[in-house]
Structure formats: C-alpha cells, structure tokens
Specification:
Distance between the termini: 22 Å
Helix content: 10-25%
Number of domains: 2
Structural class: alpha+beta
CATH class of the largest domain: Mainly Beta
CATH architecture of the largest domain: Roll
Strand content: over 45%
C-alpha cells in the first residue's frame, strides 16, 4: 500500500476548526499534479458477485500555461488493474488529454478528448465558504464502454463539514454526493449495445489544502448499475467501489539535475551489475539485460536479486515517493504470443521483487513483447539488446 495512511483515518486525530475561506483551484506554470486513485471493486451480475479486483488510475497533469481564470494542463491518464491474488498492478490502458481547469473547478475539455471522464469535482461557488455551508454544482461523467461515448450531466451537492489541522496543513473537509438516474431507452434504439438505464450514486469526502488551494486526497463510495431490458427480462451489471485518492504536486526536474542523478546512480551500481542507466522524457531508466534471467525464462537469477536489492536501496533513498514503471521487452524471433507472455512474466517478477522492498505500491508492470525494440533484429547483438526489462523512475 502507499506510505501515507488513508486520510479519513486522520480526522479523529485533529480537532475541527471554525472559520471561512475563499476556495479556488491553483496550479502554477510547470506544476505537475499527480492523482493516484485506487478502487477496490466488486463486480456483480443480477446482484450476484462475479469478481473482486482493484483498479488504479494515475493521473498526471502538467500546467503549461496559467491565465487569470485558470490553468491549462496536459498529461496522461493511466489505468491499472490487479486481481485479488496478484501483488502488483498491471498497466491496461493509457489516454492523453489537454484541457483547462478554471479557478472554480470547472473543466473545459475539447471534444476530441474523453479524459478526464469525471469532471468538475470539486467545484466551488464564487464566495467565501464557512463551516456548514452547502452548494450545488454540475458534474459530468463520460463512459466509453459502448459503441458510442455516453456523456451524463449530473449535479453534485457539497457541504463544508469544517476545517482541521492535519499534519500542520490547514485542511478543509468537504462532503459531497451525486446521484445517477438516466433512462437511455430512446438512445438504445440506434445503439443496441448500450443499457436501457444507468443508475448509481457517489458519496465522498474531499480534503483540501486551504493555503495552497489544492486537493490533498479523497475517499469515495461509488456504485453504478447498467440495466439491460431484453424480451421482458432485466439483466444488471453492477460495480461497487471504495475509492481512495492521494494527490501531490511536483515541481519540474531540470535536465541537468536528471543527468546528475543518472551519473550518481551509475556510481552506486556495481560495474558488473548488467544494468545500464539512461534517461528519457519520463524519467530515469534502469535497463536490465537478458543476462540477468535464465535463458528463455522469467525466473530471476540469484545474482539478479542481489542487484535488484541495490536498485531498491537507490529508490528508497533518492525517490521514495516516485512512481516506478517496469516494462518487459523481447526480440522478434519466435511467436508473438510467446514473446508477449515472456516479456510480461519477466516484468511482473521484477516488479514483485521491487515491491517487497521499496515500501509502497505505486508501482506497475507491462509486457510489450517485440513491439518496442531499441535496435534492429538483424543480428544476435541487436536482438540481445532488445531482450530487456526497463525500470523507469518517473520524474515528469
């Protein structure tokens, strides 16, 4: 789990304070807002439990321009899943977006972008808010599970429960709810795969830094039901979620600082480690060659485990709160199915080993098989370079 305790556990430890404040969103140019949303999900069909799993969204938004009314941001929305018997999240999807977050929390998203699919939370009135004050604001939910995107316009009710001093941060505690109740029967005539009706509700708590005017975290209980009517019978698909959100704003890492870190890491790794250290637009990449695995195997050699322990020490010392991305790659020889499975198993084994030591689970893996070579596949030397596992320490 992430290092910080879930924020709702902290409420009881701090007295609620009374005063009012002016609430607005504040992201400065070059700020990178990272939101880590982790959902524990029960999936039911006709009220019968079918699957228990976790889903995580990591949302990275960098402010590239700031105006008087708000901030323009762009970045990625990564989706990860973890089954109940798995240790590490697996990357399953990634989408990009570019939009404006107005000072009051309203999102202006161009039509070509689906993400973010939940918009305008939290959204604030244009006045000071005191303990006990209530207000309503629009919410938009976009779903791409069907042959057409569904945009649902909803309304959220907010209440400022109060203020608390939490670890030295003057924090507003805001309760909010919204209800989904949409009849899509007419739309279903043109698009038979969409449900006849969507119902649901969300109850949540938002923790807001009143000094920085930035979200600290959120806790939500969310439920959505898709109802399909077929020849008089109704089939329901239901998702019940408990969602914990942690948020942090990072300042940009200068290229010369990244290069300096890269050189320091090289010095800390043994010369015969089999790991090369590089950098890319995402951060610093520790590249493990195939020599660290048994031939055609995902099993870590004993000497590889010792090398990874050194990598863990570096991460804990230099990057204790950074996202770690593990990617497996192969050459193009052999069948695609075999290569995809081998690359995924190798990445998973490395990620599981790292998770046991880094102290958090903001860590994921994905296998790409032969799809992302760093060299040609004409000679054995080139193929050997393509057979690798990359550990990326995300810096931007």
């Amino acid at each position: 789990m992430l290092k910080k305790p879930f924020l709702f556990l902290l409420i009881a430890a701090f007295p609620i304070l009374s005063f009012s404040a002016d609430f607005h969103w504040n992201l400065n140019k070059d700020d990178r807002l990272e939101l880590v949303k982790t959902a524990k999900i029960n999936f039911l069909i006709n009220n019968t439990l079918q699957r228990i799993y976790e889903e995580r969204n990591i949302i990275d938004l960098t402010c590239y321009d700031k105006k008087e009314d708000g901030s323009f941001v762009k970045g990625g929305f990564s989706v990860f899943t973890r089954e109940h018997d798995e240790k590490v999240f697996r990357l399953t999807d990634k989408k990009l977006s570019d939009f404006e977050i107005h000072k009051n929390g309203k999102y202006s998203v161009p039509d070509k972008y689906l993400m973010p699919n939940l918009r305008h939370i939290p959204m604030f009135p244009d006045k000071e808010i005191a303990e006990g004050d209530e207000w309503t604001a629009p919410v938009e939910l976009y779903l791409d599970n069907f042959s057409v995107e569904l945009g649902l316009l909803l309304s959220a009710k907010y209440r400022l429960k109060g203020f608390a001093d939490m670890e030295g941060v003057k924090t507003a505690i805001i309760e909010y709810t919204f209800v989904i109740n949409k009849d899509l029967s007419e739309k279903k005539i043109k698009h038979p795969d969409i449900p006849n009706k969507i119902v649901g509700e969300n109850t949540g708590i938002i923790y807001w830094d009143t000094a920085k005017n930035q979200v600290i975290g959120m806790n939500d209980k969310y439920r959505i039901i898709f109802a399909f009517l077929n020849r008089g019978s109704v089939t329901t698909y239901e998702f019940r979620m408990n969602i914990d959100t942690e948020s942090k704003v990072y300042r940009p890492v200068a290229e010369n600082d990244k290069d300096k870190d890269k050189e320091e890491i090289k010095k800390e790794l043994p010369e015969d480690s089999g790991i090369t250290v590089e950098s890319n637009d995402t951060g610093i990449v520790l590249r493990m060659g195939e020599v660290l695995f048994d031939f055609d195997s995902a099993k870590l050699k004993s000497e590889t485990q010792e090398t990874l322990k050194k990598v863990i020490d570096i991460i804990k010392k230099k990057y204790p709160d950074r996202e770690i991305i593990v990617e497996g790659h192969t050459d193009s020889t052999g069948t695609r199915g075999y290569n995809m499975k081998l690359s995924e198993n190798r990445a998973n084994n490395v990620a599981e080993f790292l998770k046991g030591g880094v102290g958090h689970d903001k860590l994921s893996y994905k296998g790409y098989g032969p799809d992302r070579p760093i060299n040609g596949n004409r000679t054995e030397t080139e193929r050997r370079q393509n057979r690798r596992v990359d550990i990326t320490i995300k810096l931007k």
